[in-house]
Amino acid sequence: MRTFVLGLVVTILTALLLKFQGAGLVTPDTPLGIINLEFCNSRQELALTLISWPDDIAEWNVVLDFLFLLSYGSLFYFGTKLLYIRADKTRFMAFASFMLKLSVLPAFLDIGENILLLFTLNQLQLDFTLAVTPVLAGAKFIIAAILVLYLLVSLPLSYALSKKTIQLSE
Asked: Where are the domains of the chain?
């Protein structure tokens, strides 16, 4: 549980660092900041996005995102591992095992996405990066949302059930 809490704290701090460092990326043309870049799928959209940003802020934001993916990846892993351990020898064991395996996927998708974003920012392989990056970003966000929902529902429920089991055994 301590590892999960530490992961949560580090994830929050890293998210705040990204938000502070990337504040210049939020403009009227790019209200979602770096997320607008992640979902660019044409050269025109890319040009409109990049023209509204100061130099190098986006590149540094992507580099800092590597720290963020380590923190949220650890948070997902340790949270789902905690639930997997608590599910030992219950009917939820197979599902908890699946979620534990799924927990590392958003971070790996983010690594690929960040590498492609760095290529995009340096105008390398644009047709490929503009086609693949939004797919990786979309998959990452969907899986991360599923994991967040799983943790938000299952951790409190698991804790409540474990307290109830302790009370019943006394």
From this structure: 2-169
| Tokens 């979309």 -> residue | 138
28 in helix, strand or coil?
A: coil
Handedness of CA 87, 2, 8, 76 (dihedral sign): negative
Concatenate the DSSP letters of all residues of 12-56 into one string. Answer: HHHHHHHHHHTGGG--SS-TTTHHHHHT--SHHHHHHHHHTS-TT
Whole-model pTM above 0.85? yes
Which one-letter DSSP state was computed for residue 91?
A: T
Residue-wise pLDDT tens digits, 29-85: 999 999 999 999 999 999 999 998 988 899 999 999 999 999 999 999 999 999 999
Question: Tokens representing 84?
Answer: 């997997």
